[in-house]
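Consider the tokenized backbone below.
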């Protein structure tokens, strides 16, 4: 019984360390998807995007081959705004650009159907 308790305790400790070690890495990535305004019925999610590299890079991926453009709008900590587009439509590859710095990071993202001018909600990065 004592060996079983020690084994369970060791396994629980390893899990705690694994999750504690993984948390900071995921804290630096933010993702968005939508808006739901694409496809033949205009009810599919248009695409997805997010931040990587400590909130310094923004990506935009068009997910539907429907002829509509896709972009992700963003704001930096200093208040400046911009957007990153997926210039090749739903073909392989996404739009990806470094827009911030270590001291001027992305603070929010907003996914948009750039052809129809419809955007999803603003999401904190």
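A designed sequence for it:
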């Amino acid at each position: 019984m004592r060996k079983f308790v020690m084994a369970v305790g060791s396994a629980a400790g390893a899990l705690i360390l694994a999750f504690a070690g993984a948390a900071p890495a995921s804290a630096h990535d933010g993702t968005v998807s939508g808006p739901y305004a694409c496809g033949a019925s205009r009810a599919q999610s248009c695409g997805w995007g997010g931040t990587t590299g400590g909130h310094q890079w923004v990506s935009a991926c068009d997910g539907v081959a429907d002829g509509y453009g896709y972009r992700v709008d963003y704001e930096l900590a200093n208040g400046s705004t911009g957007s990153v587009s997926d210039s090749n439509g739903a073909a392989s590859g996404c739009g990806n650009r470094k827009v911030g710095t270590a001291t001027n990071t992305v603070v929010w993202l907003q996914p948009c159907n750039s052809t129809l001018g419809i955007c999803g909600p603003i999401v904190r990065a």
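Residues 1-26 have pLDDT under 50 and may be disordered.
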